[in-house]
């Protein structure tokens, strides 16, 4: 790390492949080059898995009343 600058890790979550690519290109532009390490995923579930977070104690769905 030169000049005390580190690399910032970014977890990019978006269901649009075009939007993910645009953000990746912006963060890898010459102005930001080397400043960011981008991991891109297309869903919140994949982001949670990447972070090592699992759904514990899932909330049960309420049953609809027929009355």
Largest sheet: 2 strands, parallel
- The residue-averaged pLDDT reads 79
Query: Could you estimate the helical fraction of the residues in percent?
Result: 25-40%
- The backbone outline, from C-alpha atoms, is flat
Distance between the termini: 66 Å
InterPro entries: CheY-like_superfamily (IPR011006), Sig_transdc_resp-reg_receiver (IPR001789)
Domain Response regulatory: 9-67
Protein name: Response regulatory domain-containing protein
Task: Tell me what you see in this structure.
- The chain is of the alpha+beta class and 67 residues long.
- The protein has one domain.
- It is 27% helix and 18% strand.
- It has a two-stranded parallel ribbon with strand order 1-2.
- Strand 1, helix 1 and strand 2 form a beta-alpha-beta unit.
- The mean pLDDT is 79.
Question: What key attributes describe this structure?
Answer:
67 residues, alpha+beta, 2 helices
């Amino acid at each position: 790390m030169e000049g005390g600058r580190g690399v910032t890790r970014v977890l990019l979550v978006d269901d649009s492949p075009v939007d993910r690519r645009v953000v990746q290109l912006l963060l890898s532009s010459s102005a930001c080059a080397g400043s960011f390490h981008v991991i891109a995923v297309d869903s919140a579930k994949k982001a949670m898995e990447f972070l090592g977070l699992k759904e514990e104690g899932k909330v049960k769905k309420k049953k609809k009343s027929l009355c």
